Amino acid sequence: MFNKIFNSPEYFIEGWYWALPSHHLKKGQVKPVTLMGRDLAIFRGQDSSVTAVDAYCPHMGAHLAEGKVEGNALRCFFHNWKFDVDGTCIEVPCMGEALPVKINTWQTAEKYGMIWVWTGKTAPPERLPLPFVPELEHEECDSVLAKRFIKNCHPNVVMVNAIDAHHFNTVHNFPVKIVFEKNEIQNAITFSNITRGGENSLFLKLIRPFYKKAVTYNMCYWYGSTGVVTVGPDFLHFHIMFTLRLLEGGKTEGQTILITKKRAGILGWIFNRIILALTNAVGNYFAKGDTKIFQTIKFDLKTPTKADNSIMQFIHHAEKQKPRVWSTWEKSI
Ligand code: FES
Ligand SMILES: [Fe+2]
């Protein structure tokens, strides 16, 4: 099967990607981040705003993360040129004035305790939002950053695991016949289970007394690289975000984020700690079986069956997205 974007080590989908946890960047700090092969310096000004710039100083190429933050601007360590939040040079000390040079800046945002970077040259339109949990779109959320991980295969391949209906039976011993219904909106695609089953599953037996309808299993993908799993009985849904980025050679670096809606008061806070701990346990239950597969797989869906239908739909979805070239972030031709 030939795909240009899906499972390609050379391209990634233009979108929002996680850069670093918000709490790792305090006011006045600057950090180096390599995102899809491009080196960035990300800093937080005294007004708390976060700015992402290309890493190398337009004077002589020093890494700007060696520099320091002054107010809301960044000063290069090497010869002390200073740049504002638009990347404009505002001071060259040895000349006593600025020079008309600029560094590239990239749009940033913060959500779920993470700093995100938009990888397109121009700011994203409103219809291309930060990844979010569909059910909690209009809610204030509580979140915890859980596991950070590396996988030896492409982010797209890690992603489709969550809609690989057949492997739930074989790997996770979760004998539910899952048939997915898909829903596609531009850069997002969701898959929801529409069947019941799993009478013999221990997991389902445990939660069965608490629900009347079938268990919800919903997967929403953003930009082909961030997936949100929503799972649970009607009265209590768990939300786990897996946000992935492409490393050199088609490998994956990922971060798990546990999310629930904010609940008021100290009891709400305690309740949320319990919910998030349970969410972690649910995530671990599904994460443990596949680990060795991701170490050695050479993904090639040569013989798709009916059960692989959702994977095929995900591949088609990925192929419709806007590709950027790994490392240069140029548009592909
Ligand atoms: S390299 Fe940055 S000021 Fe000279
Ligand atoms: Fe799995």
From TrEMBL:
Domain Rieske, residue spans: 16-117
Coiled-coil spans in chain: none
Any GO MF annotation of the entry: metal ion binding
Keywords associated with the record: 2Fe-2S, Iron, Iron-sulfur, Metal-binding, Oxidoreductase
Signal peptide interval: none
Database matches in Pfam families: Rieske
Protein name stated in the entry: Rieske domain-containing protein
Source organism per UniProt: Dulcicalothrix desertica PCC 7102
